[in-house]
Amino acid sequence: MTKLPQTLDNRHWIAKVSAAILAGGGMTFAIMAVLGRLIGANGDPRSLSAQALMWLTAVLWVLVLGTCFLFPTGRKAWAVLGGGCVVLWSLFLLLRALS
Amino acid sequence: MKIRSDILRVYREVHSWVGICAGLLLFVAFFAGAISMFEQPLQNLTSPQLDMPPPVPLSRTPDLLEKVFSAYPQARQTYTILLAPDRGLPGRVAWPVHPPHGHDAGPMFVATLAPDGTLVVRQQAITPVAHFIDMLHQELGIPLPHAISRPFMGIIALLYGMALISGVLLFLPTLARNLFAFRFREGPRKLWLDLHNLLGFFSLPFHIVMALTSVVFAFHDPIFAVQSRVFGTSHTSPHSPTHTRPHPITADQHPDAPLLTPTELVTSLETQASGFVPTILAYSQGHGGTMLRVSGQDSRYSMRGPTAGFATVDPRSGKILSADYLPGHQKTGFAILTVFFALHFGSFGGNAIRWGYVVLGLAGAGMFYTGNRLWIDARRRREKAAGLSRDSLPTKILSRLTPGWVTGCITGCLVILTAGYFCPDVMTVALVKEIYYAVFIVFIAFFMLKP
C-alpha cells in the first residue's frame, strides 16, 4: 500500500460492481425485510406496503450500483456492503424471533 | 460545484463504458417507445376493417349477450362489453377465442346484432404491427426468448441508471458554464457534447423515471417472491395494521340477484365516480362468482395502466369494491405509486401529454445517438494522438454500427407501419418480424460494408 494521498481509480471495477450487485443487492433486500417487519408488511403484492417496499428496493439497488465506484478498493466495497448485508439480515432475524 | 478530479475521471470512464454497452439498445427502446405512445390509434390504422353491422345500442346489450351465450356457451367464462368500440373491436361484446392464460388474451371474437336481430360474430383481425413495435420497446429490439428478455432489459435498465448517476456527476462541475452552451462552430465534438448535455440535463426527471420504472418492470416478480418468503405465512404478526391487509374483494353476495344491465352499471358508476369515463366492462367467473373489472379514463388524474385506470365493481349492485387503481379515488399511497407508472406510460393529462412524451422519447433516443458519436470521436482523437494512422477495429466497428443500427431501426419501423397501413390483410406476426429484421440487418450490413 502506498502512502500517497488516496486517488480513486477503476482498477478494481469488477470487484466493486460485483459487490454492488451481490452484496449490495442482498443489503437492499435486507433493508426491505427490516422495514417491512417494522411496519408489519404481509408480502401480498396487492398491498400498498409490498408495492412501496418493492419500489424502495429498486431505487436503493440503483443507488448502490451508481455509487460503488467511490469505494477506495474492491475489498473495501465487499467489506462494507457484505457487512451491511450480514448485519441487516441478522437484525431481521432478530426482529422476527422477538415478535 | 467542485468535485475531486480523480472522482470525475472514474465516473467519466464508468459513463462511457456503461453508455457504450447500453446506448444502442436504449435507442431502440426510446424510439419504439415514442411510437408506442399511440399504439392503439396505430393499431386501428393498420387493422383491416371487419365487415359487420354497427354495434347495437348499449340498451340492447342484454339481448345480444343472451344470443351470444346460447351460441357460444364458453363465452360466459370471460367476456367484455365494449362501451367504446373501435376499428379493432367493432362490436358490443367480445370474448377470447382460446381460454385466456396470463395477461395476453390472444385473438377475440366480437359480436353485434344485424338490423333483423340475428347474431353477427367475427374473429378480430388485428394487424400485429403496433404490438410488434411495443415489443421492440419492451425487449430493446433484441428478439430473445421471453424468459431471458425481461431480466436482460432489467440489466440494461440498471446500466442506464448508472449512466444517469455518472452523467449528472460529470456535468455538475461545468453546469453553470455549459448549461445553455451550444457551440456548433467549434467542431463536431463540442456540438455533440453540448447537444448530449442539453438533452440529458433538461429531460433528466424523465430519464430518472424511465430508469427506475424499467428496473421495477423487470425485477418486481423476484422482489415480490422474496417478500412473500420473508413476510409470508411463517409468522403472522398479531398486531399487523389492517391497512396493509389485502383488500377483500368479495361482493355482498346475492348469487340469485340478476346482473345489472350495462346501462344501469354506467349510471351507477357515474354517480359513484363522476368524471371517470368507463370504456370496457370485463366480466369473468372467479372463486366468488361473477367478477367485474371496469377500465376507463379520467384525464384529470394519473392512470395506472398505459391507457386506463381500473375499478373492481360488484356486477349485481354496481358498487365499487376496490378503488385502488381508480383515477381520482385512490388512497394517497396508491395514488403516489400510480404516479410512477403514469409517468412511464404518459397516461395522464390526455393527448397533449402523449405528444409531449413522443417528443421526450425521440429526444431521449437522440441523446443515446449523440452519446455514441461522442465515444467514437473521443476514441478517434486518442488513437490519433497515439500515432495511429487509421481507426482501430473497435472504433471502426462502432463508428459504422451506430448509424446502421439507428437508421435500420427507424426505417424498419416505418416500413412495417406503412405495410400495415396499405396491406393489413397479409401482415402476420411472423411476416412483420421478418420484414423489420430484414430491413434492420440490411442497413447495418450496408454501413458496415460501405467503403
What does this structure look like?
The complex is a heterodimer of chains A (99) and B (451). Helices cover 73% and strands 0% of the residues of chain A. In chain A, 41% of the residues are buried. Chain A has three helices and no strands. Chain A is elongated, with a radius of gyration of 16 Å. Chain A has helices spanning 13-39, 48-67, 74-98. Among the domains of chain B are: 5-41 and 130-217 and 351-449, no CATH class; 49-124, no CATH class. Chain B is built from 13 helices and eight strands. With 451 residues, chain B is an alpha+beta fold. Chain B has an eight-stranded antiparallel sheet with strand order 4-3-2-1-5-6-7-8, covered by helices on one side. Chain B has helices spanning 5-36, 39-45, 61-71, 129-139, 146-171, 175-178, 188-202, 204-231, 262-272, 332-345, 351-385, 393-422, 429-449, and strands spanning 78-82, 93-96, 108-113, 119-123, 277-286, 289-297, 309-313, 320-322. In chain B, helix 2 packs antiparallel against helix 4, helix 8 (204-231) crosses helix 10 (332-345) and helix 11 packs antiparallel against helix 12. The radius of gyration of chain B is 26 Å and the shape is elongated.
Largest sheet of chain A: none
Q: What class do helices, strands and sheet pairing of chain B give? A: alpha+beta
Q: What's the number of domains of chain A? A: 1
Low-confidence stretches of chain B: 234-249
Distance between the termini of chain B: 46 Å
Number of H/I helices of chain A: 3
Helix content of chain A: over 70%
**Oligomerization:** heterodimer
The helix tally of chain B amounts to 13
State the end-to-end CA separation of chain A.
Answer: 47 Å
Radius of gyration of chain B using CA atoms only: 26 Å
User: Shape of chain B, please?
Assistant: elongated
Structural class, judged by helices and strands of chain A? mainly alpha
Strand content of chain B: 5-15%
DSSP summary, beta strand count of chain B: 8
Transmembrane segments (chain A): 20-40, 52-72, 78-98
Protein name (chain A): Iron transporter
Keywords (chain A): Membrane, Transmembrane, Transmembrane helix
Transmembrane segments (chain B): 14-38, 152-175, 195-219, 355-376, 397-422, 428-449
